[in-house]
Specification:
Blueprint (H helix, E strand, L loop, with lengths): L7 E2 L7 H22 L1 H8 L7 H31 L9 H21 L13 H11 L7 H12 L5 H15 L16 H21 L5 H10 L10 H16 L1 H4 L13 E2 L8
Antiparallel strand pairs: 1-2
Helix pairs in contact: 1-2, 1-3, 3-6, 4-9, 4-10, 6-7, 7-8, 8-10
Amino acid sequence: MPTESRSMHRVRIPTAALIAFVGITFLITWGLIGVYIVFPDAAAAWFGEISGTHPFFFLATWSPAIAAFVIVFFYGGRSGARAFLSRLLLWRCPVGWVAFILVGLPLVFVAGSLLKGGPIVAPLPPEGIGIVVALLFMMLFLGPIEEFGWRGVAQPLLQRHVAPIWAGLLIGATWGLWHLPAFFLASTVFADWNFLPFFVGNVALAVLVTPIFNQTRGSLLWPMLFHWQLINPFWPDAQPWDTWILVFVAVIVVWWHRDTMFTREGAVTEVMPARKNPDPGAAE
């Protein structure tokens, strides 16, 4: 019987791949940063002082994405990677969430800064606004890249077995713990923060991005833009007040979306979306 050339073919990554994802992610980040914590003088002498522009810092930040692509290539090869990357093109998003990402998140940081007696926007450096704009675009290639791992692989796999609220909480806790070594490095911004509010903030943020992720059918674009806003250098340092505001907002969002946050119905569970099979004879 002839087959349809437009039939869909899916490569399904097993849930057990989560173990490999977490293992690779922590091994790279904790391994690289751990060397600077345990052997600071030797590491600085061998590799140079660690900073936000050091290649090791980029590798440590990219570890969730590295782990994600290792898993995607292992199970799906190049065609699987193309299907995975196609999620960057899922641009449709409810207007309310667009407004929250573009306006709501900045207001959280502004409000948190005002509560601690800080400025509305971060003070400009002596070099002027140009350096901040350059830093803003450099940030696009740091934190947002993590989303290939957290929302790209971990969220869909977890949502096969637990409701989105629990997937968000688990990823948030893992995400927060993953950052822990950075708090022991004097050369990074984390050294000036308290870990507990930061950890709680990570959990709240992971819960907040969960309905965005599911309502955009697994888009990677919008979680990346969400993440980019979190590290926008124009927003003032609002720790720890921004954390408590985010927790409050997360509680409201969970209550508002309680019909979808506490059930797996409609939750995105595939890492590599089904794609059209180029070989008509391959479908059954």
